[in-house]
Write a structure and sequence with these properties.
Blueprint (H helix, E strand, L loop, with lengths): L3 E2 L2 E2 L2 H4 L15 H11 L7 H10 L7 E5 L12 H7 L1 H13 L10 E5 L13 H18 L3 E4 L10 H5 L23 E6 L3 E9 L3 H7 L4 H19 L6 H12 L11 H23 L9 H10 L2 H17 L5 H24 L5 H15 L20 H39 L9
Parallel strand pairs: 3-4, 3-5, 5-7
Antiparallel strand pairs: 1-2, 6-7
Helix pairs in contact: 2-3, 2-6, 4-5, 5-8, 8-9, 9-10, 11-13, 11-14, 12-16, 13-16, 14-15, 15-16
C-alpha cells in the first residue's frame, strides 16, 4: 500500500526518496543557551514552561545536523503541558513531526534530532507592532544561534514580511539569509546562492547550506485542500535529508511540482474559510476528477498498451491529485459540519452525479486495465456514502444526507493510495523494460578495430 502522510497518499516518486538518516552528533553547541538567554532578556523566568519548551525545540545542543527556521510562536501554545502537547496542538509543528518521521523512515524526531527555531522567538505579536530594539535583538539572537550551531542543512521555512527601507527590514541584519524566498522557489537559482555566508569575527565566515521551504501553515491552515502543497512539504523534507546524507539529486518532475505549487500560492487575504467555501471547492475538484476518470476508463489504448504508456497516461491524468484534493476538502467539511443544509445538499448531489457518471463509463467499457478495478471499488464505496433524501433523520448528523463525510473522505484517500501503488509498480516495469531495451541495443553494437 502506498504511504500516507499529512492525510494524503504520498506521490510514488516522492516515496522513493524516503531513506534513513544517520544523525551522528557533532561537538557541543551553545545555541540552546543563547535562545534561553533571549527569553530571560524578555523578562521570562529561565525555568518557565515557555523557555523550557523553546529550548527543547531548539535542541539537540550539538553542532551540525538539520535546523529549521519558522516565523514566530502563537500566543496560546500550551507550554505548561510540555513539548508533546505543544507539538500536538500546533498544526505546523505536528506537520513537521509527521513529515520528518516519514521521510527519514523513522530515524528523525523533531523533539530530539532536529533544531526548530523561530525568526522571532517568544514574540507572537506582528513584527510591525514591535519596537526596533526588540526586533533587532530577536534577529541578532537567531543569527548568533545559527553561527554557533553551524547546521549541515538549514531549512528556511519562515519569513517576516517587510518592505525595503522599513523598520522591520532594517532590523534583520544577516537574519534575512535564513528566510524563505517563496513557495516552490530554490536557492542556487538566480541571485540566491545555495550557501549563506555568515560573518564570524572580523575575517571569518560560517558557510550554511540552505534548502528553501515554506511555512507548513500555508499547506495545512490556509490551502487545506491543495494536496500538492503537502506533497511539496514532503519533497522539501526529502531534499533536506538528502543534502544531509549528501545524496540529493534534483529531477525534472520535482521542478514541475514546485511550479504547480507556485501557481496556487499567489498572495491573498487570510480570511477564515467556511463550509460553503470547501463545498464549492469540493464540487470543482469532483468535476476535474470525473474528467480524468472518464478519459482513463474509456481509453481503449490501455488494453494493449505497454507498462510505460499506461504509466505516462495515468500520471498525466492527475487522478491521484484530484482524489487527494477531494478527500482533503471533505475532511475540512466534516470539521465544519453544521446546519448549512444548502452546502451539504449540493455536495451530496455533486457526489451522486459523479458516482453515476463514472458507473456509466464502467458499464459501457471493457477496459480491464488495473486502474478499472480500483475505479469500480471507489465508485461502489462512494455510492454507499450517499443517502437518499427520504432517509434523512432530522436532528442528527444523518440530516446532512451523507452517512459520514469521513466515510467518503476515506474512500477518495483509499483510491489515491491504490492508484499511487499502481503507478509505482508501472514505473518499475517501465524502468526494467528500458534497461532491457538498452541491453539489447548494446548487444548489437560491434566494436571493431579502428584502422591506424
Amino acid at each position: 500500500m502506498a504511504a500516507v502522510c499529512l492525510d494524503i497518499a504520498v506521490e510514488h516518486r516522492i516515496e522513493r526518496l524516503f531513506k534513513p538518516v544517520n544523525h551522528s552528533r557533532g561537538d557541543r553547541s551553545q545555541h540552546v543557551e543563547l535562545i534561553a538567554a533571549r527569553g530571560v532578556g524578555l523578562g521570562k523566568s529561565p525555568h518557565s514552561p515557555e523557555v523550557r519548551v523553546t529550548k527543547e525545540l531548539a535542541g539537540p545542543p550539538t553542532k551540525g545536523g538539520i535546523a529549521i527556521i519558522l516565523q514566530q510562536p502563537r500566543d496560546n501554545h500550551p507550554f505548561d503541558k510540555g513539548l508533546d502537547a505543544v507539538i500536538n496542538d500546533c498544526p505546523s509543528l505536528s506537520t513537521l513531526a509527521d513529515v520528518y518521521k516519514t521521510v527519514s523512515k523513522g530515524t528523525l524526531d523533531i523533539r530530539t534530532d532536529v533544531t526548530v527555531v523561530d525568526l522571532l522567538s517568544y514574540l507572537p505579536d506582528k513584527a510591525k507592532g514591535l519596537d526596533e530594539n526588540t526586533l533587532t535583538e530577536a534577529f541578532r539572537t537567531l543569527t548568533d544561534m545559527i553561527r554557533e550551531k553551524e547546521p549541515e542543512v538549514l531549512l528556511c521555512a519562515g519569513k517576516v514580511f517587510a518592505l525595503p527601507g522599513t523598520k522591520v527590514y532594517k532590523c534583520k541584519g544577516e537574519a534575512f539569509k535564513f528566510e524563505s524566498i517563496g513557495v516552490g522557489k530554490q536557492f542556487d537559482k538566480g541571485r540566491m546562492p545555495l550557501r549563506a555566508r555568515i560573518r564570524k569575527g572580523a575575517y571569518q565566515f560560517v558557510m550554511v547550506p540552505r534548502v528553501n521551504g515554506f511555512h507548513p501553515s500555508h499547506a495545512v491552515n490556509y490551502r487545506q485542500e491543495f494536496s500538492v502543497l503537502r506533497q511539496l512539504q514532503l519533497l522539501i523534507a526529502a531534499e533536506t535529508c538528502g543534502r544531509l546524507r549528501n545524496d540529493w539529486k534534483n529531477q525534472k518532475w520535482m521542478d514541475e511540482l514546485r511550479t504547480n505549487c507556485q501557481a496556487i500560492s499567489e498572495p491573498q487575504e487570510t480570511v477564515e474559510r467556511t463550509l460553503w467555501d470547501f463545498q464549492e471547492s469540493y464540487c470543482s475538484i469532483l468535476d476535474e476528477l470525473r474528467g480524468s476518470v472518464h478519459l482513463l476508463i474509456t481509453d481503449h489504448s490501455f488494453r494493449k498498451a505497454s507498462a510505460g504508456m499506461v504509466y505516462d497516461k495515468l500520471l498525466k491524468s492527475n487522478v491521484t491529485r484530484y482524489s487527494n484534493d477531494a478527500s482533503l476538502a471533505l475532511r475540512e467539511m466534516a470539521k465544519r459540519n453544521s446546519s448549512n443544509n444548502y452546502s451539504l445538499t449540493k455536495a451530496i448531489t455533486w457526489t451522486q452525479y459523479f458516482a453515476e457518471a463514472c458507473q456509466v463509463d464502467i458499464d459501457d467499457e471493457g477496459n480491464e486495465a488495473g486502474f478499472l478495478a480500483y475505479a469500480k471499488d471507489m465508485v461502489l464505496n462512494i455510492s454507499g456514502c450517499i443517502l437518499n433524501q427520504s432517509s434523512r433523520c432530522k436532528g442528527s448528523r444523518a440530516d446532512t444526507g451523507v452517512r459520514g463525510l469521513e466515510a467518503a473522505c476515506k474512500t477518495f484517500l483509499d483510491f489515491a493510495k491504490n492508484v499511487e501503488l499502481l503507478l509505482g509498480e508501472l514505473l518499475q516495469k517501465k524502468e526494467a523494460n528500458g534497461m532491457d531495451e538498452l541491453a539489447g541495443m548494446l548487444s548489437n553494437v560491434s566494436l571493431g578495430r579502428v584502422a591506424a
